[in-house]
Amino acid sequence: MNQSKPSLQTDPESWVDDHGDALFRFALARVGKVDIAEELVQETFLSALRAADNFRGDSQGRTWLVSILKRKIIDYFRSKKRDSSSLLGQQDDSWLESLFDTRGQWKNAPQTWGTQPETALETEEFWGVFENCLNKIPKRMATTFRLRELDNYSAEDVCKELQLSTSNLWVVLHRARMRLWKCLDLNWFNGEQRS
Fold it and tell me: Does one domain contain both 72 and 89?
């Protein structure tokens, strides 16, 4: 009896039509550049084509393609690894010290935001502003934040994938959160009264 291996539900010729847009959006949300996202999706399809015979059918075709794309994104950021001083964003963090006194208390507490964060998260406009803010911080810092906070990678996995020490990870995440807070406070929450 000849048993055939499970295969993707469609043939490779239809992968682009069936999964291309979803993969592109996934990549673009992580790398922030159209040309890089397009290239990563192309590399994903090529890798999938080479490995199609190995697809066991344990997951849906799109899930399998996304897992390949995730590896391509991680490889991309590994290839763009910067030195540790750039990773920590030390060049422009002097404003952080102006926020707190010597005891670590706010000098001027942040303003109360005009809306509940849950409501803001539901709007597409917020995510556009959030992406713009994320794109303004150093790329390695943004990648670290995306993997840990948006993609829910464990701290151990982020450290392993980006070759960071645990203490370095927490410093990078802290700085990313502070920069995002500042950018969102200026570009979203203070402008909330406009609606």
Answer: no
How many Cβ atoms are within 10 Å of 37's Cβ, its own excluded? Answer: 22
| φ, ψ for residue 100, nearest 5 deg | -125, 150
Tokens matching residue 48? 């999938």
Judge whether 4 lies within some domain: no
Among the listed residues 15, 106, 100, 102, the one whose alpha carbon sits nearest the alpha carbon of residue 55: 15
Angle separating helix axes 166-184 and 155-162, nearest 10 degrees: 100
- The CA distance from 79 to 195, in Å, is 43
Distance CA 19, CA 44 (A): 11
Angstrom distance (rounded) from CA 174 to CA 88 = 10
**Residues 52-66 pLDDT 10s:** 777 666 567 788 888
Tell me the pLDDT band of 142, cut-offs 50, 70 and 90.
Answer: very high
Alpha helices in 32-60 (DSSP H): 34-51
Is 157 contained in some domain? yes
Question: Are residues 180 and 128 both part of a single domain?
Answer: yes
Residue corresponding to tokens 């469609």: 10
Residue 115, phi then psi, degrees to nearest 5: -140, 160
109 burial (CB, 10 Å; 0-12 / 13-18 / 19+) is: exposed
